[in-house]
Fold:
Amino acid sequence: MEGLIQTRGILSLPAKPIGARRLLQPSHGLKQRLFTTNLPALSLSSNGHNKFQAFQSIPHGISVSHKERSRGFICKAEAAAAGDGNVFDGGDTAAISASPKIFGVEVTTLKKIVPLGLMFFCILFNYTILRDTKDVLVVTAKGSSAEIIPFLKTWVNLPMAIGFMLLYTKLSNVLSKKALFYTVIVPFIVYFGAFGFVMYPLSNLIHPEALADKLLATLGPRFMGPLAIMRIWSFCLFYVMAELWGSVVVSVLFWGFANQITTVDEAKKFYPLFGLGANVALIFSGRTVKYFSNMRKNLGPGVDGWAVSLKAMMSIVVGMGLAICFLYWWVNRYVPLPTRSKKKKVKPQMGTMESLKFLVSSPYIRDLATLVVAYGISINLVEVTWKSKLKAQFPSPNEYSAFMGDFSTCTGIATFTMMLLSQYVFKKYGWGVAAKITPTVLLLTGVAFFSLILFGGPFAPLVAKLGMTPLLAAVYVGALQNIFSKSAKYSLFDPCKEMAYIPLDEDTKVKGKAAIDVVCNPLGKSGGALIQQFMILTFGSLANSTPYLGIILLGIVTAWLAAAKSLEGQFNTLMSEEELEKEMERASSVKIPVVSQEDAPPGESTSQLSEKSTSTGI
Structure:
């Protein structure tokens, strides 16, 4: 007879147990029942599933030596197994209590994934409203135009982003993760509520219109962009806060929290699906923006319809912000954190400059930064030109805002579809291919947009047959370019980027994420704006510089693809190391049962029994 019970964690007994030997030795009657009856035995395989075997029955009349009886109780420990097993009395069933599942997913996992999906929904619902509103404010305001955007991103947005990163790095060293989350998100909620109900109604009083007009008359129209920032400074502040919501709340707070409570396997399966709920938010928020845009037309004369719409939309933003805080509190209270490898390299506390030097010295972080900066520059090279065409086609705030609502809805639908395909891409082709799709899509669609602008003349008859002017056609093609680029970013680029943070140690993860997402994101947009400013000053207009912008776009995308390839190898190496560390930790936690000299069968020493145990598979 040989019954082997495979398990992971078997407690070792002392060499000479005191008081336990008598308890562990079965009585004569129990011995007889054990060795003369068919009993089921439980075996746990390495994958954690139950396998039921049976003790071989001993026919009557066949004697069994004490040695063979002792060998039947030898346990085989399997280091690679997962979970602990318990054998219950009764002989009927002996099972390991498994976590309940819904639709094949463990309830514990759903308690993380569902709230995270709702958080992402609320965050992107707000971001869509804020993104559309900020463009309407700064582009359609009196004394301003789309040309303000490059100056705004370079001279206002970037410095504020750098200042926030420095402050966030300091706070991350002194605050807990929970306190840091609330400290960052609450000022955003308060500001957007105050803007809708206090700052915008008083904009005529707090904007220096007269001073801006005098300076413009003195300095000339070439300073219209910088002077517009001063003229509508509260709108520009709203623009920057809306931009920071996308980089801080979406990238740093949400994805940092998601990386904290999810495992790599869960991330590969569910990160692409987070965007499904988020892009449903894009669809509904786009409809919300368009509803309020059309509502202004139905208000009576003398009523500031945009102020009424702004109050309603900012109320929604505040409500969604409070919902985000509640979901964060609930997850921290009721969801257990996953077990991470304990052998992470411990980093010392570093100051701001030391942190920046450390991040710059890391090839891994540099490649991640290249991805983010390259995306910002590439999308900005096309987006500003498109928005200038958009204002020319839709000069009024009502029409501009309504078009942006339709744009957000189409972006949500396209991204939702891409999200459904992204899980297949990750599963079939892996991280590397998924990371290279976004730059490829952006390059192809960007070439199509610039080609229509450069060679619009030959396409004019065809466009006329479609009932459009060349300007309207450029607006639609630019919209398609932005829709496809953003859908690829949300469904593939962002999940790839966030997966890359998971195998890093906590210090690199927190400070590196702050530096990349808060600084590199606006740095990419500001870099694109600087390139555009330089091209306009050099070649006289944006149209004259379009061929050169296409060449620059090609070079940036090439560097983007090279960084993605380099990061792929480093990511796979780190993941292999982390899996190896976890296996070693599980192996080191297994203890082989020790049989004392007194418990050894007559005539055999402990070492002889150990040798025989080894030969039987221990």
In short: Residues 1-97, 342-348, 609-618 have pLDDT under 50 and may be disordered.
